[in-house]
Amino acid sequence: MILEWVSYIVFYLLAAVFSVFLAYCLHVHHVHQKYDHLPGPPRDSFLLGHVPTFARAMKSDSLIHDLFVQWGEKYGPVFRMNSFHQTMIAVHCPEATKIILMSPKYLKDPSVYKRLFNLFGKRFMGTGLITAADHDVWYRQRRIMDPAFSSTYLRGLMGTFNEMSERLMDHLEEIADTKTPTIMHDLVNCVTLDVICKVAFGVDLNFLKQTDSPFQNAVELCLRGMVLDVRDPFFALFPKNWKTVQQIKEAVELLRKTGEKWIQDRKTAIENGEDVPKDILTQILKMAEEEKVNSAKDHEQMLDNFVTFFIAGQETTANQLSFAIMELGRHPEIYKRAKAEVDEILGTKRDISYEDLGKFTYLSQVLKETLRLYPTAPGTNRWLHEDMVINGLKIPGGCSVAFSAYVSQRMEKYFKDPLKFDPERFDVNAPKPYYCYYPFALGPRTCLGQVFSQMEAKVVLAKLLQRFEFSLVPGQSFDIKDTGTLRPKSGVICYIKRCS
């Protein structure tokens, strides 16, 4: 009797599992029928879609964005990609880019950005400025933070930009005396991390003097974790990866606990009437008080943005600087022209003023061209909630639309000889790219810190050109490494020599 009942239960369970699986397969078939009129690469399998292709690209250490460029060239400005039951539409059509990214009605795709809410189960970026899909949640945060990035406030940061950059110059002088090669990415990464700590949170950590900093290591681990968690849904399931997953979770916890301590210390200092730095944190707390943003939920959101500042604000500028140094080292004629401009504007003076930044015309072109070839944050996604016709193709609503600056900025149809590093593309008299150049995104969700980032990059690069000659160590790779943001694979290994 018992065996009979067990057999019935097993039968019904198997029938239920089969029914669910069949329903899922029918749903996947429906999704395919809905979007298969769009061009796109053949799927690896019915259920997995292109997931195996993405996994192979990651395991082979090749850059997955180069695969997207190949697909863009082959299948045109609109093509589909499948992952399980989801379809993502890749778009590099300037007209559609303008319509969708410039309008607030097309929200960030929650299915993409909610993957960054947690990192392997630990709250990571939560509902911060980058990840908040709900427009009202994002807008309230943006309204609070906007004053901290106003031109008036940013002008006051020049002293800090100069101070932190001088630390790098002093360090490079020591390296020049040893005549040994150095990894430039590691050094500029320390500087940009010092800058964000100082100008945002009033904390001076001097990472150039630290070795094996737990905080810096935590940022690195989180960046790695972003790629693993977002692109490999099965990573945490394999026992061989559990140690790495645990290390990433501990890194997230360290960042959030550090943020909690710094924020609480500042709140206490303000409540006690102490003098506090007029930095970004003070401005945010002041605005939050005026907006009556004081709940536990709001506190967690503040920590979300603490993590966002370090992951997005520091890493991207360091990567841009590294790529710029790499390309200047590869192109002596561009290097000489940029240096000549810096020497003419600065002469022998050490401190760079806010007014000087506007005079660095060619240096600005170098930095813009660097972001064209190497957009450190390569793309963004929006949710298409309604049917739309793009480039003559009807796109049914209810799907994610991916915009890749990396793809559009490396396409021959938009930029002649796209793999050539040519700052002249951004000369004031050159034709302007039409909605195919957007390293900081576009529209209302454009990067809040882009002016901050480019001011910092100009100061560091100008001082470097003014004081040193650098040459690339032969034989190193000029490939790109994907760590969630894009950075030089070799780290840019240089010989440093003082200018005579």
Topology (SSEs and partners):
Elements lengths: L1 H34 L15 H9 L4 H12 L2 E6 L2 E6 L2 H8 L8 H4 L4 E2 L2 E2 L11 H11 L5 H5 L2 H21 L3 E2 H18 L12 H18 L10 H30 L8 H11 L5 H35 L1 H15 L7 H4 L3 H13 L5 E6 L3 E3 L2 E3 L3 E6 H4 L41 H18 E5 L7 E3 L3 E3 L4 E6 L2
Parallel strand pairs: 2-9
Antiparallel strand pairs: 1-2, 3-4, 5-13, 6-9, 7-8, 10-13, 11-12
Helix pairs in contact: 8-9, 8-18, 9-13, 10-11, 11-13, 13-16, 13-18, 14-16, 14-18
Explained architecture:
- By secondary structure, the chain is of the alpha+beta class.
- It has two domains: 1-35; 48-498, Orthogonal Bundle (Cytochrome p450), CATH 1.10.630.
- Helices cover 54% and strands 11% of the residues.
- It has 18 helices and 13 strands.
- It has helices at 2-35, 51-59, 64-75, 94-101, 110-113, 135-145, 151-155, 158-178, 184-201, 214-231, 242-271, 280-290, 296-330, 332-346, 354-357, 361-373, 405-408, 450-467; strands at residues 78-83, 86-91, 118-119, 122-123, 182-183, 379-384, 388-390, 393-395, 399-404, 468-472, 480-482, 486-488, 493-498.
- The strands form five sheets. A four-stranded mixed sheet has the order 1-2-9-6, sandwiched between helices. Strands 5-13-10 form a three-stranded antiparallel sheet. A two-stranded antiparallel sheet has the order 3-4.
- Strand 7 (388-390) and strand 8 form a beta hairpin.
- The longest helix has 35 residues, at 296-330.
- It is globular and about 90 Å long.
- The N and C termini lie far apart (96 Å).
- The relative contact order is 0.15.
- The model has no long low-confidence stretch (mean pLDDT 89).
- Keywords: Cell projection, Cholesterol metabolism, Endoplasmic reticulum, Heme, Iron, Lipid metabolism, Membrane, Metal-binding, Microsome, Monooxygenase, Oxidoreductase, Steroid metabolism, Sterol metabolism, Synapse, Transmembrane, Transmembrane helix.
- The chain crosses the membrane at residues 6-26.
- Heme binds at residue 447.
